[in-house]
């Protein structure tokens, strides 16, 4: 039986029951329904609904403060939604927060940090088993960090820190991997290794939810299956060519828009109507 982790809070505080499978079909790996989230009295996300299927790669883009990290925290179960539901099929979510959100001065080695992902799998004696060590070694190999396994994490460059996060997500062997700006500060050469490691996950049916400010990468490659444009609510959600292939009147996507929220919002609101339904395309 496939395990289901559910983070679901209805407006009256009642925990939601499992969603009915429409027409008896298999449920999506991730289902977010009517999510409202924020901090204290401040609501950051309004009525966010979407689904992610096994093996899909979804880019989440939006200006600073759009609520991308907030959405990811809700999906990872780190932040409790104010309303709505987050349903995840198939066990734990591997979550790599933004690099800045972590205390990198903590006295630990690369190996230790990646091994933390294996804690839930430890056996009776709560010690790493050979398969845990294997999973960690394989994950470090995949992101090109095997040679730095014994290095203290405080000695790493920004890009190396990102790759440690990614290795942790890989070692966790989760079916849903949520990465908050994984390409941020990753050196040119290392970015290819990271993308290759992420590409391999699809073969295992792993779904990816990735936030990025690199709109050129999102729009200019067919690496992502879906793009979500988020700014407090979902402005567009669909295949990259549908969401990013703008009419020339508003110009082609470029990083400039991220620095100019008003122009960016105009661009986003010019999305074809079929890609603005907030659901899966
Ligand atoms: N712990 C917190 N307490 C209060 N407000 C918060 C907290 N974390 C985020 N916020 C606020 O919530 C809003 C959304 O922040 P969030 O980090 O989700 O946006 P983002 O899209 O990830 O932004 P960026 O691209 O800059 O990382 C911002 O206005 C932010 O200041």
Automatic annotation (TrEMBL):
SUPFAM superfamilies listed in its UniProt record: P-loop containing nucleoside triphosphate hydrolases
Name the UniProt record assigns to this protein: Metal ABC transporter ATP-binding protein
One Pfam family this sequence matches: ABC_tran
Assigned protein family: Belongs to the ABC transporter superfamily.
An example molecular function term from Gene Ontology annotations: ATP binding
Keyword match Nucleotide-binding: yes
InterPro entries documented for this protein: AAA+_ATPase, ABC_transporter-like_ATP-bd, ABC_transporter-like_CS, Metal_Ion_Import_ABC, P-loop_NTPase
Keywords: ATP-binding, Nucleotide-binding, Transport
CDD domains according to UniProt: ABC_Metallic_Cations (cd03235)
PROSITE patterns associated with the record: ABC_TRANSPORTER_1, ABC_TRANSPORTER_2
SMART domains the UniProt entry points to: AAA
Protein's UniProt keywords contain Ribosomal protein: no
Lineage: Bacteria, Bacillati, Bacillota, Limnochordia, Limnochordales
Domain ABC transporter stretches: 30-256
Organism: Carboxydichorda subterranea
């Amino acid at each position: 039986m496939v395990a289901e982790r559910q983070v679901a809070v209805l407006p009256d505080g009642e925990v939601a029951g499992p969603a009915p499978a429409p027409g008896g079909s298999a449920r999506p790996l991730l289902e977010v329904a009517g999510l409202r989230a924020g901090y204290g009295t401040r609501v950051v996300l309004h009525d966010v609904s979407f689904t992610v299927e096994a093996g899909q790669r979804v880019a989440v883009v939006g200006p600073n403060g759009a609520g991308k990290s907030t959405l990811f925290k809700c999906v990872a179960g780190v932040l409790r939604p104010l309303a709505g539901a987050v349903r995840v099929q198939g066990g734990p979510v591997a979550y790599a927060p933004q690099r800045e959100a972590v205390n990198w001065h903590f006295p630990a080695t690369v190996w230790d940090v990646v091994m933390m992902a294996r804690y839930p799998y430890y056996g009776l004696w709560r010690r790493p088993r050979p398969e845990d060590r294997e999973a960690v070694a394989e994950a470090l190999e995949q992101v090109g960090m095997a040679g730095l396994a014994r290095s203290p994490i405080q000695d790493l460059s920004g890009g190396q820190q990102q790759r440690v996060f990614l290795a942790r997500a890989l070692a966790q062997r989760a079916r849903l991997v949520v990465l908050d700006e994984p390409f941020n500060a990753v050196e040119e050469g290392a970015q290819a290794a990271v993308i290759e490691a992420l590409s391999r996950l699809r073969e295992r049916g792993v779904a990816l939810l990735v936030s990025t400010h690199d709109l050129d990468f999102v729009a200019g490659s067919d690496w992502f299956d879906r793009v979500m444009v988020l700014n407090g609510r979902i402005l567009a959600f669909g295949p990259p060519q549908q969401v990013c292939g703008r009419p020339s009147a508003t110009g082609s996507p470029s990083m400039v828009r991220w620095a100019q929220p008003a122009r960016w919002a105009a661009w986003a609101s010019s999305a074809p109507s079929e890609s603005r339904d907030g659901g899966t395309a």
